[in-house]
Amino acid sequence: MKGSMSYWVTLIVIVWMNVTLKKTKGVQSIKNQLSQFVEEKEVGGTKWALLVAGSNGYANYRHQADICHAYQILKKGGLKDENIIVMMYNDIAYNEENPMPGIIYNNPNGPDVYFGVPHDFTYINVNANNFYAVLSGNKSALTGVDHVKVLNTKSNDTIFIYMSGHGSEGFFAMPDSGQIWGDDLVNALKKKHDALAYKKMVIYIESCYSGSMFEGILPNNINIYATTASNAHEDSYGFYCPDYSSNSPPFFTTCLGDLYSISWMEDSDKSNRTNETLHQQYLNVRNRTAKSDPEAMSHVMVYGDLVLGNDSLATYLGVGPDGGNDNYNFNTSSSHEYSYQQFNMTTRLVSQKDVSLLHLKLKMEKAPDGSKDKLKAQIELDVEIAHRKNVDRNVHFIWDLMFGEDTNSTMMTRIRSASQPVIDDWDCLKMILKTYEHHCGILSPYGMKYSRAFINVCNAGISEKQIIDATSQACPKKNNFS
């Protein structure tokens, strides 16, 4: 009774103050003030966030740029560093290939997004084990770090998780060549829900096949709302990518962002987060993604508890000092505001698995003729092309050994209907990947496109012995990279 009385007294005071101030100089509308107050009263608790870049290497610049941009949005939204956990390899800002040392851009004409980003988990400490330790709030399970920064959340807290990287059907890749599997992620989320360790959670995932992380397996009754860059069976796309023509910009040789990620973040930058809902943002992102390039598009998906789509962005991302972020200017240091001359960069889309190829082509073309850099880039490009031919050969040979050369090729790419999990026997899929990598080498972002073939092997009921025999015959000598 006492708490209820306090609530209504505070509400009345806000109304009175707004009416009084409105008469003098004008303020934010009463409706916005009240809706913000009621929402904060309803949700309460602390806003937490976990940001994960799942790749390393300069060709994958965009994933860490995405994560840095997301941090700036949350920071401007009022979240504290102690409640934002960043997992990022941190090899881009000062990479020798970065034309702007110490600076990362997520938009060709935007600000530096790297400035001020915490280095919570970097290099080899960005791995699946630490991800699950952070998610579960289990400090004792962390490895390789002295500090203890985890999602130490309580029953009235909100959690925002954003992941950007490479993926395959069934998993999100980590920079140490490990995986976050869809079934393991959902099981971890269920445990956190059962432990009453949060009130509401939002998850955004940027990767190829990202819908497979939730399709048919994320419950709609554990207070989690999730959107993904693509459905369970398609690529997602790099954005703000240079063209490999002679007119390409002289600065960057790789994409600065990803289409889905750029779409939700640029929407968050300019929107009034108190008014805009999660569902409205989903529609905005879906529409922008669909219209960017009809020949190279992904289908943005939504999963889980769709009722949470009525929540405002502010519930999870914070409001920001003005209710919106129209100027897209994160940093107060004059040395980090729009730190380079604007240039025209195309917004052509490039499949995530092909961005590395674009990077190597541009790197070779931009190197002076006859230079060591030119020769090095040519060798790197030749190696990448040879690797792609090799992984194609390996997978098709394994398939032929198990099913016969006369098998219809469509069987390899067969997909299940929407709402079904991509696979029933997750352990089988994990076993195949482990077997392949043991005999043929680590599955690269290009090779990840064959996860569907592996899934169809499992769904066909092929035995573990058959899988091992075929794989060892196809790759008698282990390749370093497949």
UniProtKB/TrEMBL annotation:
Keyword S-adenosyl-L-methionine found: no
One GO term under biological process is: proteolysis involved in protein catabolic process
Question: Which N-terminal stretch is annotated as signal sequence?
Answer: 1-26
Write the Enzyme Commission number(s) for this entry: 3.4.22.34
Catalytic residues (positions): H166, C208
Report the top EC class in one word: hydrolase
Q: Name one GO cellular component term.
A: vacuole
The answer to whether UniProt assigns keyword Lipid metabolism to this entry is: no
Q: Start and end of every Legumain prodomain domain?
A: 380-475
A single Pfam family, by name? Peptidase_C13
Recorded catalytic activity of this chain's protein: Hydrolysis of proteins and small molecule substrates at -Asn-|-Xaa- bonds
Q: Which domain of life is it from?
A: Eukaryota
InterPro entries, from UniProt?
Answer: AE, Legum_prodom, Legumain_prodom_sf, Peptidase_C13
Q: Name one GO molecular function term.
A: cysteine-type endopeptidase activity
UniProt keyword annotations, A-Z: Disulfide bond, Glycoprotein, Hydrolase, Protease, Signal, Thiol protease
Into which family does the record put it? Belongs to the peptidase C13 family.
Task: Extract the PANTHER family matched here.
Answer: HEMOGLOBINASE FAMILY MEMBER, LEGUMAIN PROTEIN-RELATED
Q: Which protein is depicted?
A: legumain
Species of the source: Cicer arietinum (Chickpea)
Highest lineage ranks of the organism? Eukaryota, Viridiplantae, Streptophyta, Embryophyta, Tracheophyta
Query: Which gene name belongs to this protein?
Result: LOC101497152
